[in-house]
Amino acid sequence: MEYGCLIGGEWLEGDREIVVENPYDGSEVGRVLAPEVDVEALLKDAREGQRRWRERPTYEVREALAEAAHLLKKHEDELAELIALEGGKPIRDARYEVYRTREVLRLSAAEAERLYGETLPGDAQRGRTAELILTVREPVGVVLSITPYNFPLLLPTHKLGPALAARCSVVHKPATVTPLSSLRLAEILLDAGVEPLALQVVVGPGAELGEELARADFDALSFTGSRSVGEHLREISPIPRITLELGGNDPVIVDETADVEAAAEAAVRGACYHAGQVCIAVERAIVVEDVYEEFLEAAVEVAESLKVGDPLDEDTDVGPLIDDGAVEKVRRHVEDAVERGAEILTGGEPEGRLFPPTVLADVPEDALVAREETFGPVLPVIRAKDFEEAIRIANSTDYGLHAAVFTERLDRAVKATRKLEAGGVIVNESTIYRADYMPFGGVKASGVGREGVPQAVREFTEEKTVVIGRR
């Protein structure tokens, strides 16, 4: 499989060869022959593409996005295999990613005809009388989209779909290690009828190409990735409208009234989904001491039941980490926890890039796994004396993306939703719960702005006020 980049409505090849490898066995999946990118020319084409796309009637925009969803269904098996090969995601989960991607396009098609404004009375303030005051929503212009490796089809679509529905044009830069899904998605969108100049996809190292793009005169930036890179982009970028999703250290609280077995299963599976390489993966379980030992026993049983191995095997639950650097980071976090007094109950030793589901007991609050994003299949279990202390521990990190609480007490569920410092609070489900139409984003160091298709469409539009005077 060989691609160029989509620039100026054409597939262009260049001298920079980017080889995409399967993280499971190191075999070649494909390659990108990336040309040098003239950012000024890229923006010029994008502005022309946005002008053309904006002039399309609403039904054409809606139908193009709906047709793209239909084409994804047609190519579901091919796309799922590609996700599994270039990203190491187990094939069952890869299929679900394709399904969710179709849903994002379907939702985007629907939102294309819902760019609603509002009407206000023109005479509600003394001395200010008009026949009518109304608002309309208009596209912000050209959007820069930058995405990571862990959802190589879904996350680009969470930016491209809403941006195109809002009549913006998009320049998209996928992760260098998983660019093939984005390039295949671009082919599908063009086949579905999207204006060629309204979508461009370029591939190259983030430290070079990503930074150059972020310094350019785009109208909006939507970035998903690490905290360090996101904060750096915000510092250097002149782009006026920025949405950042920067990961988390997502806690699950379990109190003494909870269904402990259900909570343990949700916590372990939430920690190990896609080998923990998910921004809303469970990063900490905070368990009150009355059920602490019971939770540990149940968590170990679930962890040891998960199958680790080849992503293309239908029975695989946990595939490889994306590269050797990811393995070393997870190993370092586990070793740090042990040095600080934690005990490995199961797992802990990788074989190549396969890191087994790992459960850690007696994890102190100052351990790396308890305060940073590990991004691996590790469940640190922290003891809390009661529910109040569990909430304090949950709020003690810099992050605030998702948090979950398992309890049978309604008052505690309500209290958790008010007290937990997170963009989303999930009751009696894992932190990994996300529906693609719900608002999604974090507080504190987990980012700014909101995704979810309806919310993203609003992020990519400007509100204009129109006053019709009396004569």
From TrEMBL:
It holds the Pfam family Aldedh. Transmembrane segments: none annotated. Keywords: Oxidoreductase. The active site is at residue 245. GO terms for molecular function: lactaldehyde dehydrogenase (NAD+) activity. Belongs to the aldehyde dehydrogenase family. This is Aldehyde dehydrogenase family protein.
